[in-house]
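Protein entry
_____________
===
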Amino acid sequence: VQLQASGGGSVQAGGSLGLSCRASGRTFGAHNMGWFRQAPGKEREFVAVITWSGDTTYYDDSVKGRFIISRNSAKNTVDLQMNNLKPEDTAVYYCAASSVHFGRQQKLYHHWGLGTQVTVSS
């Protein structure tokens, strides 16, 4: 599975942005898909994940109620809608795929895309 994230940009606090991750490969449908982020000077952290079937999602507490993860299996995409953005959401966002894990354990995600920058100004 090859992944490519897009949709980053700059927005003021309180605004919204949508990220999209396009996957290539016939096994996309068998992978749980996650979003992670890395802020300057910090370690990469878990944001959200969705099951291969799209019927279950899990969010980090810091984004719960503001971010929505979804997937479109027909288009091989996973989206992250980010609402009510805060300056602390500023980071490089990465999408990742795992055939064995549904959660926040980064080591169990075996496919990673290049990141896309999200900048939120106050």
